[in-house]
Amino acid sequence: MSDQVRLSAGDPAPDFTLASDQGDEVNLYALLEEGRKVIVYFYPAAMTPGCTKQACDFTDSLDSLQAEGYTVVGISKDTTSKLAKFRERDGLTITLLSDPELVVHEAYAAYGEKSLYGKLVQGVIRSTFVVGTDGRIEIAQYNVKATGHVAKLRKDLGLAA
């Protein structure tokens, strides 16, 4: 897992179909067929402080991101029922997807060796990808910070704050 090659701009985005917290199946390429770019972000665990901050930031920016042609999906290894509680508790409006087997995490190299409090551990690597309508990665960011990430991403995308 940790020897997996990270994705870069220009790489084809691995397709996926995952269950959402709202009980439907979401397919990446179906979203792209709607003519929208997709922001795919991976986070370690629902309802933890950093992940809550990041999800709330994406929710707060969702209207303006959608107006610019982006769809946002957050992926974690949490169960759909836990994701539903996360949505309910924090009033989230972004799409939350469950990847308990870590298949999609691994396809995006968003699971592997990382440093946690100075120790090397296997875990979810907080990562964000912007997938263009052509199915290729436009931006690949690994080890992002939960706080301030959405503002930085907006800047990287050339969008107003």
From TrEMBL:
Keywords: Antioxidant, Disulfide bond, Oxidoreductase, Peroxidase, Redox-active center. The keyword Oxidoreductase applies. CDD domains: PRX_BCP (cd03017). Residues 7-161 form the Thioredoxin domain. One of its GO terms (molecular function) is thioredoxin-dependent peroxiredoxin activity. It comes from the Bacteria. Thiol-specific peroxidase that catalyzes the reduction of hydrogen peroxide and organic hydroperoxides to water and alcohols, respectively. Plays a role in cell protection against oxidative stress by detoxifying peroxides and as sensor of hydrogen peroxide-mediated signaling events. This is thioredoxin-dependent peroxiredoxin. It comes from Nocardioides vastitatis. The gene is bcp.
